[in-house]
Design brief:
The chain is α+β, with helices and mostly antiparallel strands. The chain has a single domain (3-85), classed as Alba-like domain (Translation Initiation Factor IF3, 2-Layer Sandwich). It is built from two helices and four strands. Strands 1-2-4-3 form a four-stranded mixed beta sheet. Helix 1 (12-26) packs across helix 2 (36-53). The protein is globular.
Length: 86
């Protein structure tokens, strides 16, 4: 499954476009975000993407989960959003 990483500087419309393309081709995708700003951009992108794929009869659902990711010597907690067609 494709994993898209979102940062606080990501443009929600650009992420939504990438998200829509992957959902249309593969049916599901995961977004990963670390930090409040990145999570905010990811959630906005998912909301925008719902509007992009709705005319094609695709209803998106989002399943959030916490994951531990290595960052150098330490581990950070990230949120991973699984986005798929219902």
């Amino acid at each position: 499954m494709e994993l898209l990483k979102v940062s606080a500087n990501s443009k929600p419309k650009a992420v939504a476009g990438a998200l829509a393309a992957v959902v249309r081709s593969q049916g599901a995708v995961e977004l990963q975000a670390v930090g409040a700003g990145a999570i905010n951009q990811a959630v906005k992108a998912i909301a925008i993407c719902r509007g992009y794929v709705a005319p094609n009869g695709i209803d998106l659902i989002m399943i959030p989960a916490f994951v531990e990711i290595p960052v150098g010597e330490a581990k950070r907690t990230a949120l991973r959003f699984r986005v798929e067609a219902r």
